[in-house]
Specification:
By secondary structure, the protein is α/β, with parallel strands linked by helices. It contains seven helices and 15 strands. It has a six-stranded mixed beta sheet. Strands 5-6-7-8-10-9 form a six-stranded mixed beta sheet. A three-stranded mixed beta sheet has the order 13-14-15, covered by helices on one side.
Length: about 325
């Protein structure tokens, strides 16, 4: 039996998008959110004593402003090296867009897959074979998985792939492939990246998007994190989601039809937001590894008679200030 972490789309030092548009948004607290989420990933790996960590692309967010991003990453990898936890990474479209990334010397224990052809890393003491290929450019439109090698005999075989599959809303159609083709490879687990929403696409074998580790805008709602994958003595893998995010986005829809005054709308807002935040705290309590404290970011959508209001009255400013 062994276990590993499957993460993707870390987007280190990526800014929270368009927060400046919202007055009173906690900009200072959120600027380091992707780093804090990555801190949590490293802490989880050490706490769970996993055998290795997989990152399925987009560790970075394009070109860095300076070398601080790379130096931070190296410092975190030193913690995993001390814990004797190797890391295996494929470059995604954002990584391939970074010129500085190509000059960064990776620390011992961190393994980056080549971009010119598929490669296999073999962890002999665990009889694990990890197959993957990095992006060579920011826009890869061919099916990389088609040339992944056959599974190694008497090994637990993992496919590491940055892909949109047959297409996902809001994501560029990079490295397209079909679930059926991944199944035919004969691998025991597919660790996918690129799509920011966690999803288990197939149970046998598990074909899984871990989602990103930190939501960066209001379209990336709900818990964000990674997959803790446990493999039993019969080679059966089961993926368990673990949250890593330090700021969480929600969309709260409120029907203000019953309200007769602005004050009653404020009461509805307060009640609904309290319920949403309580639910978020309940989600946290379900996981052995808990992240705290957490910022809860909420976008309100207020409507009357089922229709979104345009030209809302002045009391809506008080709603924004009360959340």
């Amino acid at each position: 039996m062994f276990k590993f972490l499957h993460a993707a789309d870390i987007h280190l030092d990526s800014p929270m998008l368009k927060l400046e548009d919202y007055e009173g948004a906690p900009l200072d607290e959120l600027r380091g959110a992707t780093r804090q989420a990555f801190d949590n990933l490293v802490q989880l790996a050490v706490a769970e004593k996993v055998d290795f960590v997989l990152i399925a692309g987009d560790l970075y967010d394009g070109d860095w402003k300076d070398y601080n991003t790379g130096l931070y990453f190296v410092s975190q990898m030193s913690k995993l090296r001390q814990a004797e936890i190797p890391v295996f990474i494929i470059a995604g479209n954002h990584d391939a867009a970074s010129k500085i990334t190509k000059t960064l010397r990776l620390p011992e224990g961190v393994n980056l897959f080549p971009s010119n052809k598929p490669h296999t890393f073999h962890i002999e003491k665990k009889s694990v074979a990890i197959h993957g290929q990095s992006f060579s450019s920011p826009s890869v439109k061919k099916d990389l998985s088609a040339k992944y090698p056959p599974p190694l005999k008497d090994c637990f075989n993992i496919g590491l792939l940055h892909t949109c599959l047959t297409g996902r809303e809001g994501h560029e159609p990079y490295a397209p492939c079909k679930i059926e083709d991944l199944q035919l490879k004969g691998y025991d687990y597919w660790a996918l990246g690129h799509v920011h929403q966690k999803e288990v696409l197939c149970e046998d074998p598990p074909i899984v998007f871990s989602g990103n580790s930190q939501g960066r805008h209001v379209r990336e709602t709900g818990p964000k994190g990674c997959m803790l994958v446990k493999v039993d003595n019969k080679g059966r893998a089961k993926a368990h989601f673990r949250s890593l995010d330090v700021a969480r986005w929600f969309v709260v829809e409120i029907d203000a039809s019953p309200a007769e005054t602005g004050y009653e709308v404020l009461d509805l807002v307060a009640l609904r937001c309290y319920w949403k935040r309580t639910k978020a705290c309940h989600w946290l309590s379900e996981f052995k590894f808990q992240v705290s404290p957490m910022l809860i970011m909420t976008l309100l959508q207020i409507s009357r008679d089922g229709r979104a209001k345009s030209g809302l009255p002045p009391w809506t400013q008080a709603v924004g200030g009360s959340v």
